[in-house]
Amino acid sequence: MSTLYGHLFPAYREYAELTDEARVDWLRRDRWISLPQAEAALCHLEDLVIYPPRGRMPCLLLFGSTGMGKTEIVSRFSKLHAPQFDIRTGLSRMPVLLVQMPPEPTEDQFYTELLTALNCVELSSLSVRSMRAEARHLLAEVETKVLVLDEIDKMLAGTPRQQRVFLNTIRFLTNDLKIPIVCAGTEEARMAVLTDPNLADRFGAFELMPWCNDHALRQLLASFSGLLPLRRPSRLDTVEARQRLLALTQGVTGRIFRLIEAAAVAAIRDGQEMLDAASFDAKDVTLPLVSMYASAGKRKTIGRAIL
Question: Which residues form the AAA+ ATPase domain (predicted)?
Fold first, then answer.
């Protein structure tokens, strides 16, 4: 098997032996792939965990276009600091608390999401004031070191007053608990945070940039060639393959991953068992929706599946 599938990394060669449907299932499962920007972001986040309490705690805004992997990064960060149960005290420690922003950025909905993440129940009878007090108490009790708020651009769905209240809430929590707060969102979220000068002054910014045709992209595609469970060597590290991939995805991480996944599934099912520049134009490959506009005038995209 090592000779037959020598183009794959040793740890992944066994997957090429699976049935077609088992390989398709493997391709569609979530897995963490270490990427340079993601690892750099995680290093910034790890620095916040060990930051000693002080009067003005540093905060971080992780931002970038939709699909650049913000949620995956903060989820990975949360898993690396999963809750731990202390048998001696009978309490759980939650060093990193990940909270999803509610659809509407009202104070009561925000604290409801926060308390739910803290495993609280029976919240319907609590007033906003009570929820605020309970959140402060529990965050201290479980020894939260970093509070992470994902998709904070949802706050833009609120009125100007609701947005101001939400930003004031962030400032209140970091002041009161003396913990860093990490916000993940889009460029619009960055602009929203900048509307509060006192809060913006505390935030560092880490932007996830789209991929371009450089050495990092070549490394990424070489990695895919070595881990996708295809039985023939792929030819992704060519000028044509890189250019076509970027044209179809605009360099957005999520689109790249979904396009390669779709192309790999098609290569398994049609027996090609490898990827090259032409693979992205196979009739069974589901394209990113944005590629419909990038390929304006190319009638061959009409009638094909658009993701």
Answer: 56-213
